[in-house]
Specification:
The complex is a heterodimer of chains A (about 400) and B (about 140). With about 400 residues, chain A is of the alpha+beta class. In chain A, strands 6-5-4-3-7 form a five-stranded mixed beta sheet. A two-stranded antiparallel sheet of chain A has the order 1-2. In chain A, about 40% of the residues lie in helices and about 10% in strands. In chain A, helix 1 packs across helix 6, helix 2 packs across helix 6 and helix 10 packs across helix 13. Chain A folds into three domains: about 170 residues, no CATH class; about 120 residues, no CATH class; about 70 residues, no CATH class. Chain B has about 140 residues and is an all-alpha fold. Chain B has one domain. Chain B contains six helices and no strands. In chain B, about 35% of the residues are buried. The chains are: A alpha+beta (about 400), B mainly alpha (about 140).
């Protein structure tokens, strides 16, 4: 990906040598230009490319003087032989012009003040939500508001430098926020208050979300247990990653948090975890592991696992909501039993039919939030339908004193 | 084979459902449950092997649940497929009881996993022994 795109010119070069270098630079620019302009926006790898662009833009938002490329020619003062306007018609190699001489450092590419303003403006618009990532990319691709060649160069610099600085793992599809500049650009980690402001302060609801004091060991214990972050850090991370909810009806909602906590059911709603670079086993870790105390998202995050991306969670929410809206069976006050006790659930159920399985989606009646949502085996579905309870039979026998 | 299993009747009920007649849904449900249990029975060795691997510490709890859940989904999908294509199996007389015993394990796919100590392992061990014992019965 390394290309000679800008160059230093020694005063010792002959005119022919300068022209030869200039032609080579023009060819390189053209190749990179074509590479970028041919990036499909609707292709299968769109999201990955968007991510690359996002990280690229993130770094553009950092002090721009840090971007530099060491060139192979001897250190001399920097000349730009290719004008900005020329870059828009890059195939015309005869459009050479002598640009103004920058009194810049030796062998460094420097952005002009105008280019820096352009980048800063774009990144500010992006981070403040005035434009979407797609619009930003369109500007990059179309040259509106930004000069193409500048974007190309910065992108190349970024790609050249990124692996050595951050490591390949930084490009993972679902990074943690500290590895996810695109997420920050998209305001993914900005705390959007829930519409019901008591949500996070309700101890009962926190407990329902799997947050208990038992999962908040002292720092010494955290190290011993292999936790990579504190309880508070994990809580903030989860709360910031899953800030919203999807309303199902006036009484029921599916918070991002609860949907993420139950995302191991997503496969049952015809969502392939592999589409989000997860395995079923990865998702099952959210429920807990033998060697760790406590389950749920907080404990999962503390163990350093990758959080399911909000897009995956939203897809699960949407499928659940659609199923709820079409469910022919709706019941309230259905007992839901598990190892901790009994809960009252509002249930939306779709019986199996020709070509489709039975689905049960349950909501906690106290919080109105999701408890579970998945397709079910026929005996399990019939147990709900005929005996009107959810959860394990042994827990039903235990907690109902039968 | 179950005494009250009648393939012709099962087919008839499936056809009824297909044209929107749900008047005999309860009866059809019983057949569908039998088919589910039969499929579980067909892969009983896999269930036992899975539990054994977990008990021996060869797989973790997430691995155990991932495999169990995938099997469960596969059974659900298989029932749908077989009924849709009117492919009906013969039933083993031990399948229904096996299905009941297995439920105590598959029920764990739902709900919280707030087990302490070896609580979950003990639960699996208890059910493993029960199922083994049942399979060894005449």
């Amino acid at each position: 990906m390394s290309s000679l795109l800008y160059y230093s010119i020694s005063s010792n070069f002959s005119k022919d040598e300068i022209i030869e270098i200039d032609k080579q630079v023009a060819r390189n620019r053209q190749e990179v230009y074509l590479f970028l302009t041919k990036l499909p926006l609707n292709g299968k790898r769109k999201s990955k490319r968007l991510f690359l662009y996002g990280i690229f833009l993130f770094h553009l938002g950092q002090p721009l003087c840090a971007a530099a490329v060491v060139m192979s020619v001897p250190p001399q003062s920097i000349h730009r032989l290719y004008s900005i306007e020329g870059s828009r018609t890059i195939t015309n190699t005869r459009c050479f012009q002598i640009a103004s001489i920058l009194s810049s450092k030796v062998d460094k590419i420097r952005f002009t003040n105008e280019q820096i303003k352009q980048f800063d403006g774009l990144t500010r618009q992006l981070s403040s939500g005035f434009i979407t990532m797609e619009e930003a990319i369109l500007q990059l691709r179309g040259g509106e508001g930004l000069t193409d060649i500048v974007a190309v160069i910065a992108f190349v610099i970024f790609v050249n430098c990124y692996d050595s600085v951050f490591g390949v793992e930084a490009f993972q599809a679902n990074p943690l926020p500290h590895m996810d500049p695109m997420g920050w650009f998209n305001s993914k980690y900005e705390r959007n208050p829930m519409q019901h402001t008591s949500y996070k302060s309700s101890r009962f609801e926190l407990e329902m979300a799997g947050v208990t004091d038992e999962m908040c060991p002292s720092p010494e214990m955290a190290d011993k247990n292999g936790f990579v972050m504190s309880y508070q850090e994990a809580y903030n991370l989860v709360a910031d990653t899953y800030p919203g909810y999807m309303q199902v009806d006036e009484s029921h909602k599916i918070t991002d948090w609860q949907a993420a906590k139950h995302i191991y059911h997503a496969n049952g709603m015809d969502i392939d975890p592999a589409d989000y670079s997860f395995t079923q086993q990865d998702l099952e870790r959210i429920r807990g592991e033998s060697r760790y105390k406590g389950g749920g998202l907080i404990a999962y995050a503390r163990r350093g696992y990758r959080l399911p991306p909000i897009e995956m969670v939203q897809e699960y929410q949407l499928r659940l909501k659609t199923s709820c809206e079409n469910a022919p069976i709706k019941r309230t006050k259905v007992p839901y039993y598990d190892v901790n006790g009994a809960w009252q659930a509002g249930v939306f159920a779709t019986p199996p039919s020709e070509g489709s399985s039975g689905i049960i989606i349950a909501f906690n009646e106290s919080t109105g939030d999701l408890m579970t949502g998945d397709k079910q085996k026929k005996p399990t579905f019939d147990r709900f339908k005929n005996e009107n309870y959810l959860g394990g039979k042994k827990w039903m026998l235990k907690w109902s004193n039968k | 084979m179950s005494t009250d299993y009648n393939k012709k009747r099962y087919l008839q009920l499936l056809d009824q459902r297909n044209i929107g007649d749900n008047s005999n849904n309860d009866e059809l449900s019983r057949y569908s449950c039998m088919l589910t249990n039969q499929l579980d029975w067909e892969i009983r060795d896999q269930y036992l092997s899975l539990m054994e691997k977990f008990l021996n510490g060869n797989i973790s709890m997430p691995e155990f649940f991932a495999e169990l859940r995938i099997k469960t989904y596969a059974i659900i999908d298989a029932v749908i497929f077989l009924e849709k294509h009117r492919i009906l199996l013969s039933f083993d007389k031990k399948a229904s009881k096996f299905g009941e015993l297995l439920e105590d394990v598959t029920d764990e796919l739902e709900g919280d996993l707030s087990y302490t100590g070896d609580g979950f392992k003990n639960l699996i061990q208890e059910n493993f022994i029960k199922i083994k014992k049942y399979l060894n019965e005449e």
